[in-house]
Amino acid sequence: MLKKILKSYDYSLVITYILLCIFGLVMIYSASVVWAVQQLGQPSDFFFQKQKINLLVSFIAFLAAAVFPYKIFQFKKSLAIIMGLITLSLFFIFIFGHTANNAQSWFKFGNSSFQPSEFAKLGLIIYLAAVYGKKQSYINDFNKGIVPPLLFLMLSVFLVAIQPDFGTAFIIFMIGALMILCSGMNLKSLFKLFLLAMVACILFSPFFLMKKDEIFSEERMGRIDGFLAPFEDVEDHGYHLVNSYYAIGLGGLFGKGLGESTQKLGYLPEPHTDFIISIISEELGIFGVGFVIFSLGFIVLKGIRVSTKCRDPFGSLLAIGISSMIGIQSFINLGGASGVIPITGVPLPFISYGGSSLLLLSLSMGLLVNVSMFTNYDRKYKESKDQTTPQDSTAGPERKFYTINGNQRTISR
């Protein structure tokens, strides 16, 4: 039994996850050496040592999620605990939360910090997958099958948005939207959802108008200006993006060599978090960037493939949600650093420095590997067992019954 389970694991996913984490750890050390000394007055390996601890804890979480049967999370008690933890943490952040980068999004514990909105992503994925997985028989019943999980989704998005953390709120909304699209609803139900979303936007518009000075702050509008015309304000709003361009351009095809970046010497802010892909491009060139994009793309596509093969609706939606989260977050980070979209401060999965993000992604990868394992096990062993099960020899030949003058006769065939 254990041997069959071990054979059913998709080790390509496991290896890709490990390679990305190790690569990220190396690049965090390279990118943060000068930043740690100049900006924080810490040893050059400050961020590297902290990320090593983060990686160790995250890898243990990955193993636990990969081994522990994922189906336990669809039970009512498990869902109630997940919903309660998400809601309470997002409410208490406004009372006990720590403000950083103009957002009250963190719980501070000494030198460590914890971002509950990161784990709200995975909690919401599990909740939506479990609820819509159970509601397949009445998925198009608007009152029973659609509205309850949608309300929880909108509440989570709202609580994260008013921190304000619009980047994470947008990711949570997009994950929920993609899971709803893949839930099995028909076009009529999806159209009703669209109308409901329009009504919700209209109802919440007065709130956003009252908070417009906070929502559309000078810093946030500056990010838009910096995105649209970065070279017109190089010293202020366009500073981040212009220096990211320089780093990407200096790397060329093969890069300047590991540790040889110029832009990390105080020119490019947050080189180990938001703009780590720019440092990778400068030091390792297109091959380093290609490795990151290929690996992340492999995980996303593999997750989608797992979802199509999984016969369990809960497992299928779980794989869709996790793949969507990694794909959306990767696009936002890479798009911001390359000027495709405005900069939002979203970390690059598995690569950027950060304990909360790495722990969340490791748990998510563990669940994805778990779903893949059970899917492979069911396909390889359960189906083959059903096909090789001998028929009951005592059943005898098939018989056809008919009646003549009230007497039942049989014919064997």
Automatic annotation (TrEMBL):
PROSITE patterns: FTSW_RODA_SPOVE. Keywords: Cell cycle, Cell division, Cell shape, Glycosyltransferase, Membrane, Peptidoglycan synthesis, Transferase, Transmembrane, Transmembrane helix. It comes from the Bacteria. The keyword Zinc does not apply. It is found in: Membrane. The chain crosses the membrane at residues 12-35, 55-72, 79-97, 117-133, 145-162, 168-186, 193-210, 275-301, 313-332, 352-375. The keyword Oxidoreductase does not apply. Its EC number is 2.4.99.28. One of its GO terms (biological process) is cell division. Its main location: membrane. It catalyses: [GlcNAc-(1->4)-Mur2Ac(oyl-L-Ala-gamma-D-Glu-L-Lys-D-Ala-D-Ala)](n)-di-trans,octa-cis-undecaprenyl diphosphate + beta-D-GlcNAc-(1->4)-Mur2Ac(oyl-L-Ala-gamma-D-Glu-L-Lys-D-Ala-D-Ala)-di-trans,octa-cis-undecaprenyl diphosphate = [GlcNAc-(1->4)-Mur2Ac(oyl-L-Ala-gamma-D-Glu-L-Lys-D-Ala-D-Ala)](n+1)-di-trans,octa-cis-undecaprenyl diphosphate + di-trans,octa-cis-undecaprenyl diphosphate + H(+). It is a multi-pass membrane protein. Belongs to the SEDS family. FtsW subfamily. Peptidoglycan polymerase that is essential for cell division. This is Probable peptidoglycan glycosyltransferase FtsW. It comes from Bacillus carboniphilus. The gene is ftsW.
